[in-house]
From TrEMBL:
SUPFAM superfamilies: Pseudouridine synthase, PUA domain-like. Residues 148-213 form the tRNA pseudouridylate synthase B C-terminal domain. It comes from Enterobacter agglomerans. It catalyses: uridine(55) in tRNA = pseudouridine(55) in tRNA. Belongs to the pseudouridine synthase TruB family. Type 1 subfamily. It is an enzyme of class 5 (isomerase). It holds the Pfam family TruB_C_2. This is tRNA pseudouridine(55) synthase. GO terms for molecular function: RNA binding; tRNA pseudouridine(55) synthase activity. Residues 2-147 form the Pseudouridine synthase II N-terminal domain. Its EC number is 5.4.99.25. Gene3D superfamilies: Pseudouridine synthase, PUA domain. InterPro entries: PsdUridine_synth_cat_dom_sf, PsdUridine_synth_N, PUA-like_sf, PUA_sf, tRNA_psdUridine_synth_TruB, tRNA_sdUridine_synth_fam1_C, TruB_C.
Length: 281
């Protein structure tokens, strides 16, 4: 591992066709990766109109070809139907499990499994361009939303069929597009540090985001060091500035050092849920 972390994990797989943002949690930050799995996502997608495939993307086989004959008004109306809270039937070509096996394994065997519609929210669906038989959109959606399924359903609403030919995840939670780094860039930094004889951390540390950033949507509660000592031992503690309920990020002292996540107990105390463990070198 370039970062010499004792453990690492990613926060949600991308489709084989997809590119873009994949947050990586290192060390103690892996304890808080679940909050990114549950977060909103933003995608840029290009669809090919007039062709429907069995996987709803360009990796599949074309199963139906139809002419593209809708108007801009038809498109606007169809797009509007996807905005807000809706129900979505997941694709058979997805990693959702049925009896311990991912659905795509059944799909590759030609087996269709009944899937229950699941609630999703499309917070924003922005029209970018429609040129020839290509349609480009930007979609801000809740977790568990399948962009391929939106495009397939959109193609059916328009009467021509459609499938994804480009999909890029441009945002996860509050992480900006500009903070993305490629593996090639990391290897370049490693080479430069080695050749210059400088500590690798000086090149890599500026790329790291705060450990509590996966939970940045939760309110922060600050407690003094004396109280933090009890919290670190797993004991519920009092905090005068805590909200009435829910999960909170807990920080210590004037430096506001992140020490873990807590849930507000019935008596108003902070009950530890995830703690940051500091390892000694």
């Amino acid at each position: 591992c370039i970062f010499n972390a004792n453990r690492a994990g990613h926060t949600g797989a991308l489709d084989p066709l997809a590119t873009g943002m994949l947050p990586i949690c290192l060390g103690e930050a892996t304890k808080f990766s679940q909050y990114l799995l549950d977060s909103d996502k933003r995608y840029r997608v290009i669809a090919r109109l007039g062709e429907r495939t069995d996987t709803s993307d360009a990796d599949g086989n074309v199963v139906q070809t139809r002419p593209v004959s809708f108007s801009q008004a038809d498109l606007d109306s169809a797009l509007e139907s996807f905005r807000g809270e809706t129900l979505q039937v997941p694709s058979m070509f997805s990693a959702l499990k049925h009896q311990g096996r991912p659905l795509y394994e059944y799909a590759r065997q030609g087996i269709e499994i009944a899937r229950e519609p699941r609630p999703i929210t499309v917070y924003e669906l922005q029209f970018i361009r429609w040129q020839d038989n290509e349609l480009e959109l930007e979609i801000h959606c809740s977790k568990g939303t399948y962009i391929r399924t939106i495009i397939d359903d959109l193609g059916e609403k328009l009467g021509c069929g459609a499938h994804v030919i480009m999909l890029r995840r441009v945002q996860v939670a509050r992480y900006p597009y500009e903070r993305m780094v490629t593996l090639e860039q990391l290897n370049t930094l490693l080479t430069e540090a080695t050749e210059a004889g400088i500590p690798l951390e000086t090149q890599l540390d500026p790329l790291l985001l705060p450990m509590d950033s996966p939970a940045s949507d939760f309110p922060e509660v600050n407690i003094p060091p004396a109280v933090a000592d009890f919290f670190r031992q797993g004991q519920p503690v009092q905090a005068s500035n805590a909200p009435a309920q829910g999960l909170v990020r807990v920080s210590e002292g004037e430096a506001r050092k992140f020490i873990g996540m807590a849930e507000i107990a019935d008596d108003g105390r902070l009950a530890p849920r995830r703690l940051v463990v500091e390892y000694q070198d």
